[in-house]
Amino acid sequence: MWRRFKLFIVLVAFEFLYPLLAVAGVIGSGDEVPEALDWRYFLWPAVAAFIVLVTYVSARRAFATNKLMCQLVRFTFTAAGIEVSGPLSSGKCSWEGIQRGEETRSMFLLWVSKQQAYLVPKRYFTEQPARDRFRSLVARQLGSRAKLRFGA
Q1: Rounded to whole angstroms, what are the CA distances from 94 to 6, 43, 51, 76, 138?
Q2: Among 34, 50, 65, which residue terminates a domain?
Q3: What's the pLDDT tens digit per position in 136-146?
Q4: How many domains, the chain?
Q5: Containing H/E element for 9?
Q6: What pLDDT digit, counting tens, does each position of 96-110 carry?
Q7: Vertex 125 angle, CA 121 and 131, to 5°
Q8: Domain termination site, one of 19, 35, 65
Q9: Which residue in 150, 121, 141 sits closest to 77, CA to CA?
């Protein structure tokens, strides 16, 4: 997960270091060290903070108002594909519809697009053999599209 956010973290860190570097005289125009903080040094960090805040609030609002996202669902995994059913919706997806599969410490992610994935928490596998069978099913069906940590 770190590799996904590495660039974001570096950019955010730079946005907050930029005013400090400007005040210290490391960056800026010529050899002049600013005596007072100029509002321009805080413009980009303010814009970055605003974007992060708006994204967070929008995501929270979308999750809170979308009943389909808040429902508990039941996954059924077979050699033919994935069946998802819940009280408000149900659907099927063949393995060909899964772009890639990943395994993290706490869950399996089955990506159907760059921005949408089925999240399967590992804690729902009550026994290790069930988790291992699921891992081998995903590896067998996705082949090279599966990035799984066997034995994790």
Answers
A1: 32, 48, 36, 12, 12
A2: 65
A3: 999 999 999 99
A4: 2
A5: helix 2-24
A6: 999 999 999 899 999
A7: 95
A8: 65
A9: 141
Residue with the two structure tokens 């814009």: 47
Query: pTM value?
Result: 0.61
Q: How confident is the model at residue 25 (pLDDT cuts 50, 70, 90)?
A: low
Residue 10 within a domain: yes
Which of 59-63, 68-72, 75-79 has the least mean pLDDT?
68-72
Residue 86 lies in a domain: yes
Domain housing 55: 2-65
